[in-house]
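P.,

For your records, the input lines for the assembly:
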Amino acid sequence: MVVNKVTGHYQIIDAHNHVWSKDGKLNIEDMENLLEAAERVGINRLCVSTPLNTPCPKPDEFRKCNDIVFEAMKKTDKFIGFCFVNPGYVRETLDEIQRCVVDGGMAGVKLYHHYFICDPALTPLLEKAAELKIPVLMHAGKVMDTATRLAQPRLSNAEHFIKAAKMFPETIFIQGHIGGGGDWEWNLRMLEDSPANIYLDTSGSVIDGGIVRKTVAALGEDRVLFATDMAFEEGVGKILDAGLSETQMRKIFHDNISGILNRRKVK
Amino acid sequence: MKIFDINTAIGHWPFRKLEFESVSELRNVLESHGISRAAAVNTNGIFYKNCHDANLELHSWLQGHEDFFTGIATVNPLYAKWDKDLRESVECLGFKGVRIVPQYHDYELNSVPAAEIADLAAALAIPVFIPQRLVDIRQRHWLDTEKVNDFESVYNFCIRHPDTRIIYTEAVVSAESFNGKEKCPNLFIETSRMRSAYGQQISKLAAVIGAGQLVFGSGAPFKEISPALLKLRNTNLPEAAQKQLAGENALRILNKYHW
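Structure tokens returned:
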């Protein structure tokens, strides 16, 4: 089998993954499965968060999610924590970023589809992220099916990211999972010539032929981040099949996300 | 380990430009990934009103590639003379299976036309291929369908037709899906969309229904090939069971007795 091409002498960092809770605590069994899967496909470190899919998570709920991430970070330094918030709670969101990032050592912010990324409600959060030089990773997609459209009416797509990136040029945006199930070609066309502070992660279960090659063609190899979002073989396999050079693979597997994480002001 | 890819396609997909559409390109890519043999359908069979034109087209494309590809017919049971076409596909064109797409040809698996296909397939001793979907419906083209063939409908179809072998491609089926259900030895599940390393979905399913009922497929050229290969490698199955999944089961189901 020609699947053993991940041989570079660098750490492979998964820029978008998750740990989950069970009965209010870190789900240890799932975390162990996650780490085993990561090891099997050659991933060394994982950026993890615990988002909620409920319509409007309250501050005490997103704090509990971040406590789960802290619990995971204590288990192993393979986890790089991302702080999940509901930005509609402005003051509590900024307090939580202080607790998780400044005081707790998390590396970025994770947002779900509670608001569009360009919604004015996000202004304080995006300014704070720029100040701290931390990335904002958001669940994203251009979905075309009725069920997902109804379930995620404020799901951001590339157009929303471009608008936000122009308003906040000092903020690093990571548009989540180009393989997350929506019309990835539409997103890539929109991102041609887009602001340089938008990055795209490759995660998601969609492994359409050419998806990574076209992603690199649209954004350039410096703005594409390897990720799986729990789709481990899909995540690694579609990079291997993209016909990339060793240099491109190194950037996507490691250098690009490493460069983003190293910008962080508080260590 | 020799690998038989049960899930490949040749032909044109109108909603997104595929990386390649021809038989020689597909063969080259599969072989470069270490795949020894493959079953192929003609994607045009979904869209031609008269599906049999796609079967004849596929047969002509596969000339010179019979050592690698096994042709799989496509039929629409609502169209004239579909049964004659299926017999000709098997008896004259040498095809070893039939693919049905109720979500595109506008009928239900729980229907008389679907039952008639199952019966004729059993009589011809060929398996029926049923794709859960062709592409992720969340990215669907506005002219494409939102319908999928879910596990329950396929399982019930298998139970109603115990003498017909069913290959469920592009499937996502957990071991728990079989809780409380009677065994279904005529159902074969293609694994390209199932989780492997993370949670061992493939291995757990094998523990419930047996590794003899799992088959390897890639979904090329719609999908990249390496993910399916990585999933095969990352199962916790013993080597003998991995070999079954990789190709031995496919050979048996398609009535091919050697590589």
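Two observations worth noting. Chain A touches chain B through 40 residues (CB under 8 Å). The domain at 81-261 of chain A is CATH 3.20.20.140 (TIM Barrel).

Regards
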